[in-house]
Design brief:
34% helix; hydrolase; mainly alpha; single chain; Polysacc_deacetylase_ArnD
C-alpha cells in the first residue's frame, strides 16, 4: 500500500497549484523535470525543491530517446542535469524516459551517467498504472476515462506484493485539477490507508540520497563524487531504483547497432562531454 507519487513534464504554470495542495496535505512527490521547461520557470523548480519534493530528470526536450544517437542522448540527460544543478544547487541521480521509451542502449548510457531509471508499475505486458491524464488537454482522453483508469489502478494495488508507482503529469491544468480534485483526495480517504511518498523514500533512503552531491549511500554511490573522483556504480545493488516494481522494459525503439553503439565509443563520448565515468563500466 505504499504509493511512489510522481509527476512528469513540468515545471509548468499549473505546478504551483499542485504544490499548494501537496503542501496543505503534507505530501511529498518526485517531480521528473524537463530541462527546457526548468530553464523557463526556475522559481517554480526552486519552490518544488525547497518544499522538500524530490527532483529528477525527464530529458531536455521530451523526445523518444531510443530514436536518438548516443551523443544526443548524452546531451538530453546531461544538459537537463546541468540546468537543474544551476537552479537548485544539486544534481539528480534518477531519471524517467519520456513515453517510457527505453532499451538497453539508453539504459546503459543513463547508468554510466549516474542516473537510475524509474518508470511506473506494470502488472502485465499490456496493463500499466498510467492514468492517461496527459491526454485530457488534447481531447484524446476525457476526465471520466482518467477516473476509470484510476479506479482500475485502485482495484489492482492489493493484488501485487510490492508498492506501486502511477504515471501522472503536472504540465496541463486539467491533469492538475484531476489530481487535486479527485485522485489525491480519494487516495487520502482510502481504507486501508496508502503510504504516499517520493520514490527515494520508497527505497528507504533519505531525500539527500536523491542527489549526487549529498548521496552518501554506500550500497549505491553516485558515479562521480562531488569532488569529481570516479567510483563504480553497482546498478544491481540492493535498494537501487531498478529494484522498484516499475515498467522498466525494452521498448520497440531502434537498436544500438543502428546508432553505431559500442561501449568503448560511448565511454569516449561521455568523456568528451566532460563527464567523469569509470572505464571499468565499459570493459
Amino acid at each position: 500500500m505504499t504509493w511512489g507519487l510522481t509527476y512528469d513534464d513540468g515545471p509548468a504554470f499549473y505546478t504551483p497549484n499542485l504544490l499548494d495542495y501537496l503542501g496543505q496535505q503534507n505530501l511529498k512527490s518526485t517531480f521528473f523535470v524537463v530541462g527546457s521547461r526548468a530553464i523557463s520557470l526556475p522559481a517554480t523548480l526552486q519552490a518544488q525543491h525547497m518544499a522538500g519534493h524530490q527532483i529528477a530528470v525527464h530529458t531536455w526536450s521530451h523526445s523518444a530517446l531510443t530514436t536518438m544517437s548516443n551523443d544526443a542522448i548524452i546531451a538530453e540527460l546531461g544538459w537537463s542535469r546541468k540546468i537543474i544543478k544551476d537552479v537548485i544547487g544539486v544534481t539528480p541521480n534518477m531519471f524517467r524516459p519520456p513515453f517510457g521509451d527505453i532499451d538497453d542502449r539508453v539504459r546503459a548510457i543513463a547508468i554510466a551517467m549516474g542516473l537510475n531509471v524509474v518508470l511506473w508499475t506494470r502488472i502485465s505486458p499490456y496493463a500499466t498504472f498510467d492514468t492517461d491524464d496527459f491526454n485530457i488537454n488534447g481531447g484524446v482522453t476525457s476526465v471520466q476515462q482518467v477516473l476509470v483508469n484510476w479506479d482500475y489502478i485502485l482495484g489492482n494495488v492489493t493484488s501485487i506484493n510490492t508498492g506501486f508507482i502511477v504515471l501522472e503529469h503536472d504540465l496541463f491544468p486539467q491533469a492538475v485539477q484531476v489530481a487535486t480534485g479527485y485522485i489525491l483526495p480519494g487516495a487520502l480517504a482510502h481504507q486501508p490507508p496508502f503510504k504516499i511518498e517520493p520514490v527515494i523514500t520508497c527505497l528507504n533512503k533519505p531525500l539527500k540520497d536523491a542527489y549526487v552531491e549529498t548521496n552518501d549511500n554506500k550500497t549505491n554511490p553516485p558515479i562521480a563524487s562531488a569532488s569529481g573522483s570516479a567510483v563504480i556504480l553497482s546498478s544491481g545493488a540492493p535498494g537501487s531504483a531498478q529494484a522498484t516494481h516499475a515498467a522498466d522494459s525494452t521498448s520497440g525503439g531502434s537498436n544500438g547497432a543502428s546508432h553505431g553503439f559500442s561501449l568503448p565509443g560511448m565511454h569516449a563520448a561521455l568523456l568528451a562531454a566532460g563527464l567523469v565515468v569509470p572505464a571499468a563500466l565499459f570493459l
